[in-house]
Every structure is written in C-alpha cells, then in structure tokens.
Amino acid sequence: MSLVRWGLLGTARINRRLIPAMRASSRSTIVAVASRDLPRAEAHAREWGIPTAIGSYDALLNRDDVDAVYIPLPNSLHVEWTLGAVAAGKHVLCEKPLAISPAGVDLIAAAAARTGVVVEEGFMYRHEPLTAAVAALVRDGAVGAVRTIVSGFTYAQGRANDVRLVPSLGGGALWDVGCYPVSYACLLAGRDHVAATAVARVSESGVDEELTGVLRFPADITASIYAGFRAAHHTWLRVIGTEGSLLVPNPFKPGPTESLVLERLGEQRRIEVQGSELLFARQVEHFAAAVLDGAPSTVPLADSRRTVAACRALLDAAGVGQ
After folding, report:
1. Domain residue limits, the chain
2. Which listed CATH number (3.40.50.150, 3.40.50.720, 3.40.50.1450, 3.30.470.20) goes with 4-123?
3. Residue 191 in 3-state DSSP?
4. Could you say which DSSP state residue 33 is in?
5. Residues annotated as part of the active site
6. The pLDDT value given to residue 1
7. pLDDT (mean) for 166-178
8. 262 bridge partner residues
9. How large a percentage of the chain has pLDDT more than 90?
10. Strands (E), the chain
C-alpha cells in the first residue's frame, strides 16, 4: 500500500477542514463519502469532488477500496462506528472525543489490538510544532516544577437545534471544546488525574453550556479548566511553575506562526514557532505514516483514555448526566 484510501463516514461541517488536508497529502486519496441519507451524500460528493457517494455507513465499511475512515459523527456514535470500522479491518481517525466514557476507549483499544489497525483520536493541535515546543519547554524545566495549568476554550453557541445541545448525542461544552484544555493538561502533567471538582451551568436541554473545573494530578499539579457556549470565542493556556510561567495565546488552532511568552526569574522572552500553512495537514500526514510505515501514533489510545476519564470525572463532579 502506497496510499491511504479514505472514506468519510458522515458529511459534518468539519469535513471542510479535513478534505483539503487529505488532498494536500502525497500519501492520501479520498475514495467515498457516506451518509444515511443518500441525497445528502451525493450533494457532499458533488461539492467536494469525491468520486463515490454511498447511502449507508455499513456499505462504505464493506468496500475493498477503502483503507481508512474518518468519523465526524455526533459524539455518542463514535464508539459504535469506530468498532464497526475496526471489525471491517479499516484504520480509523475519529473526531474528538473518541468516546464519552473510559470504558468506550477500552473497547476500542482491545478491538484495535486484536485486528492490528490504527485508531487515533482527532486532536489536531497535538500534531503541531507549537504543541511540541510547549511540551519540550515544560519537560526541560523552563518554568521549573509545574504547579498549575490554566486553560480554556469558549465560543458563543447560537444554533438552536445543534447536536451539541442534545444530551443523548454526547452534547455539552466540555465534550465539544473543553476536551481541548483537558487533553492539554493531561499531556503536560503526563499522568492520570487523581481528583476532580467542577461546577456547571446546565442548559434547558440538559447539557453543560458552561463548566469550570479543577483537576489534580500527582506531584501536586493542578489544572483549572473552563469550557463554555455562553461567551465570545477565546482560547488560552498558561503553565505556571516554581521558576516562571509560559503563556500560549492560541494553543488549540495555531496559525502558521505563533508566539509563546516565557517569563522566567523576572525576565520575559518571546519565542516564535513556525507551524502549518494548512491546519490538519500534519494530522493527516502523521496518520498516514502510522498506517503505511508503522510509525507510532501521535495521540496514543492511552492518552485518549486519560482525557476521557478526566472529562467524565469533571462532569460527574458537576452533577451533569449523560
């Protein structure tokens, strides 16, 4: 196999970011798109120049000319269709969150181990040089011993019938955008959380439309997390340690050039990091390398489980059911 032949398991808006990235990859090609509504699949195929439109997810998974699938379905369907794809022998790139319970990740990990396929959660920021730079600075002691991580992601959710507002589909601010700061905190802490506390504002539909939480990790590291649908778009990350702090103004969707601000022992230094001209392109390239070359996944399933477990603990602490 010299190319990863992709099938898109759904027609969600996020496809408009992944399709250009797949087409920019020298090791990927898009074969088909599926929807449970054939006219919708056909319209998506026409819009994006995809060769084949299919009116069934199962039919796409059974195609011999599809090696891997991208899953942008509602959160509650991620485990079901990831497991279905794995059973069909397909590699899977699934949008975050991979699951909405740790048990869901465990099922996927066991199935992937049995079949030998690659399954990875779609946290695009993990593939960017900015994230690697932040992790290296923290690991190398740029701020001393980490004491706390402060991070958040918010935007004004204005669509009344959005799937993000439906509890049965895994909706809510934490699963939609809060999983980004949670996953970053878990990455920098490098260990499972040991305690969680949170408060939430619950929407009329029953999902968290705003959540503020604190995770505690070993070595007395804490992480303050904010996720919301009720404020203007804003993202932030600050790592504070015994000898300084590191500010990351745009941690989750970095542009071609980003700046970090390192304050250490009373001095401030700005660090520029060159990133991707086309966001999501590195994610597709790294996934192709895992499939074609056996390269390690950038987002291992153990990391996905750590993030999902922390998110679930925060929701439980806030009293938000799913």
Report:
1. 4-123, 126-280+306-318
2. 3.40.50.720
3. coil
4. E
5. 96
6. 65
7. 96
8. 246, 269
9. 95
10. 4-9, 28-34, 52-54, 68-71, 91-95, 119-122, 146-154, 195-202, 208-217, 221-228, 234-241, 244-248, 257-264, 267-274
